[in-house]
Amino acid sequence: MKQLLFAAKRMMIPMQLLPFLLRTTPARLRRWMIPILPIRDLQVAKKLVDVMDENSRSILEGKQAAIARGDSAILEQIGRGKDIISLLIRAAEKSSAEDRLSEEELRGQMNVMMFAGTDTTSTAMSRILHELAHHMDVQEQLRKEVTQAAAHGDLEYDVLNKLPLLEAICRETLRLYPPAITASRQATRDTVLPLGIPMTGKDGTTITEVVVPKGTIVHVGIKAANTRCSLWGADALQWKPERWLNPLPSAIADADIPGVYPKLLTFIGGARGCIGYKFAEISIKVQLAILVKGFRFEVSDKKVAWKLGQAEAPTFEGKHMLPMVVSMVSHDA
């Protein structure tokens, strides 16, 4: 046991040194050091960063080459030149030298979009399909709503955003199952944080605020805020889309929740709130409308476990997957 504890302590020392190394050493030296440090997670993180960077470079070079060849080449690209990366490249070309995004900044933007907008959206979609498979009545109601709205052709953006049950299902899933259950922020100056709910200290005094010194890391409990029984009621931990089809209770409507997504902290809030939350929302709605209109999703006999990683993902027998029974939907009269 003593040997195991000693080994664990030796493993912790490099992790404790990382903040110091980030401030005092160049990036090239840090990359050289990673294979030497006996920290498997750190080495895995390096491999992930390398894969993301390689993909970003490949995509960016392809977009730049298509733009350079002209309009015909752009139209052959996915997105036909209207994707966000093509728009960023064109904006950079039109900007002055001092305002122009560098190659590194463009790749950084791409990495953020791929890292923050892929697993989170797919996880949310998985949760929705999983809940719909357990609530077939809600699934049938949604299918009817989408099918009627698309009776005369494809669903336009404005029509899609006005489907009440689709909206309610998305909001309820993102409330109960936020892809990121916590977030961290660092205080840039000394401040005092008021408490929404006073606490009682060990000495019996009432605590209404907390002093937060500059540099303090504050962890925000996203899921905890989204599922507070004092706001959402005794059924706060139940998936009930219908709660969004009626006016919210006054406890929620009057609550000072600073989220960019109304009354939820799923996408955080303030100046550092999620910049892509509208894109995530419409992406989920488009995928869900297409899938539910054409397919029926039912629970399988496989036991699914939801495990927390970068996002909470469905797993079966240790692998990331969501086994379901999927069948075609007949739209014959």
From TrEMBL:
Presence of keyword tRNA processing: no
Cofactor dependency: heme
Localization in the cell: Membrane
Heme keyword on record: yes
Alphabetical UniProt keywords: Heme, Iron, Membrane, Metal-binding, Monooxygenase, Oxidoreductase, Transmembrane, Transmembrane helix
SUPFAM superfamilies listed in its UniProt record: Cytochrome P450
Pfam family membership, one: p450
Pathway connected to this protein: Secondary metabolite biosynthesis; terpenoid biosynthesis
Annotated PANTHER family: CYTOCHROME P450, CYTOCHROME P450 12A4, MITOCHONDRIAL-RELATED
Family membership noted in the UniProt record: Belongs to the cytochrome P450 family.
Name under which the protein is recorded: Cytochrome P450
